[in-house]
Amino acid sequence: MTILGPFQQVKTTATNITYADHKANPFRYFECHGQDFIFFGHHPTSTPVSLVNMPIVSVGRDRLFDALGRTYEDEEFEDLCFKFGIELDDITTEKAIIRKEKHLEEDDPTEDEEIIYKIEVPANRYDLLCLEGLAQALRIFEECEEIPKYTVANISPELLLRMHVKPETSLIRPFVVCAVLRGVALDEARYNSFIDLQDRLHQNICRRRTLVAIGTHDLDTIKGPFTYEALQPPDISFVPLKQAKTFRADELIEFYKSDLKLKKFLHIIENSPVFPVIYDHKRIVLSLPPIINGAHSAITLKTKNVFIECTATDLTKANIVLNTLVAMFSRYCESKFEVEPVEIVYPDGKSYLSPDLSVYEMEIPLSYINDAIGISLEAHEVTSLLKRMQLHAEHSVSADKKCNIRVSVPPTRSDVLHPCDVVEDVAIAFGYNEIPKRKPASLKPLPLNELSDLLRSEIAMNGFTEVLTWILCSYKENFAMLNRKDDKSEAVIIQNPRSSDFEVVRSSLMPGILKTVGHNKDHPKPIKIFEVGDIAVLDNMKDVGATNRRQLAALYCGANSGFELIHCLVDRIMEVVGTPFVPLGDDTGYYIKRSDEPEFLTGRQASIFYKGKHIGNFGIVHPEVLSNFDIPDPCSYVEFNMESFL
């Protein structure tokens, strides 16, 4: 990791971290470009910490251009993506991706290699997770296509397919939604796109099938009515997809424990006394959700009628998933954008038709849109911009003669939940770069941010360089490598970390500071660095169970420990804050007291008390801790809670 100076912008080559610090606006962030994107910051009104997984959609360039109805130069298409609010993340080929995965040397692409566009889309835009959705959205944005109108076919009761839900399903996955796509024209590319969209939905909104599991079947190979049941594993037998022999459900769990793809989903039902299963009228197994479909009803390129079922623990997300699937691929139906419904019948006798493709109506004052964005648009301009974002819109005048925009949200735009989402779409279609810059009438940062900037400047003037480190670290770095023990009362543990490097929200700035020195041990000595950042600790008084704390940490590393320099820095900070040094026990200022923290040398450390309250510690870092972080030189370190000064 590269050492970062105060108020500079740096990109590291190892992890591609971007850091920015804007004195005029106290919003600080970093981002990691790749499969996962991590953002955190100090906002003028809050200090949120969030983790966002931004999907990357890979599509063939030529097929995408064919769907768009024209070709683009790479820079031209990248500019179109930027205007629409997505990003062309990479241009590659299938063979190049394979070479990269196998760590082979890069070769020049040959003419017969298909160019692949890797496009980053917002995490809540599920309609953009496939080529069909991307092409449709971009064509509408470019005003080359009208917004499609999705309809549910009018089926007579005697021809209507039904799914009967058994009461035992409430023990494991209580909800199911279904639909039928009639007269679908599939080719290899469309088939692959259909399967890819299911996989992306499973990884995204379905939370790796824990919330929703999708099953798609060749309707001509099965017969309704269907039943959704929950049975004991030995009572379920069928031939699973891509297999030739019959398995009992309990045997299937053992069989798939060696499968690299499916073993990740076994835990969802493995320990349940009953397994969910879907049968047709002849007791043919359609699927064992959320693990595998049956081989009997597998869809092929010859499939004309597709039966879709989504079992779920969250009905809202199940409806979003089903709506996304049928909306994207109903364009290939004989009756374009028409979906055949299925009646879902529950044990209590209640029933409803699925899917629900109705539009959601929302009325927003024109003044709200203009004020939020900082522009002045007429009603017809706003409605035109919204139509480019796939939102039907028309203007009306209320009884008090105020102009409103009536927006109809289609089933593909489940991300539109509030008027502010509509405002965002207007801003995107208008163009963020076209919005005139303006200075807010009054902008006053929080006192904590003002204090942070004051101390940053002061410490930088004392010759220290500011660093920015990850707010997430490994469990080992947060405890064992600092000679600390976890008493389960402080650290916020990540339940499903993506890797062992991000298991804990740091409860101290020390791991990141020491890792920075360890990765820069060949840097000319002395190394004098500091960080002002947030940690998180458990807090039962907060509704989320944890709270952020703003900390300040500084470290000196050189030929000698530099303990006196760190001590002087503590005194200087207290002087800047306006706090006098007082005798031990005096609550009017600050004093230091001998401490016994495991990360410091015994007898070479002290606790800092401010107005009678313990706010931090400083001392010579213990040699074992330095060895754990591969640091050969002695170091002294201080860290304390800045919020105590407010």
From TrEMBL:
Entry GO terms, CC: phenylalanine-tRNA ligase complex
Enzyme class at the top of the EC tree: ligase
Localisation per UniProt entry: Cytoplasm
Cofactor field: Mg(2+)
Main localization category: cytoplasm
SMART domains, per the entry: B3_4 (SM00873), B5 (SM00874)
Residue span(s) of domain B5: 357-437
A molecular function (GO) term: phenylalanine-tRNA ligase activity
Enzymatic reactions: tRNA(Phe) + L-phenylalanine + ATP = L-phenylalanyl-tRNA(Phe) + AMP + diphosphate + H(+)
Keyword Repeat attributed: no
Alphabetical list of Pfam families matching this protein: B3_4, B5, PhetRS_B1, tRNA_synthFbeta
Keyword Cytoplasm part of the UniProt annotation: yes
InterPro entries: aa-tRNA-synth_II/BPL/LPL, B3/B4_tRNA-bd, DNA-bd_dom_put_sf, Phe-tRNA-ligase_IIc_bsu, Phe-tRNA-synth_IIc_bsu_arc_euk, Phe-tRNA_synthase-like_B3/B4, PheRS_beta_core, PhetRS_B1
Protein EC: 6.1.1.20
Domain of life the protein comes from: Eukaryota
One record GO biological process: phenylalanyl-tRNA aminoacylation
Recorded family membership: Belongs to the phenylalanyl-tRNA synthetase beta subunit family. Type 2 subfamily.
Subunit annotation: Tetramer of two alpha and two beta subunits.
Protein name: phenylalanine--tRNA ligase
Native source organism of the sequence: Nepenthes gracilis (Slender pitcher plant)
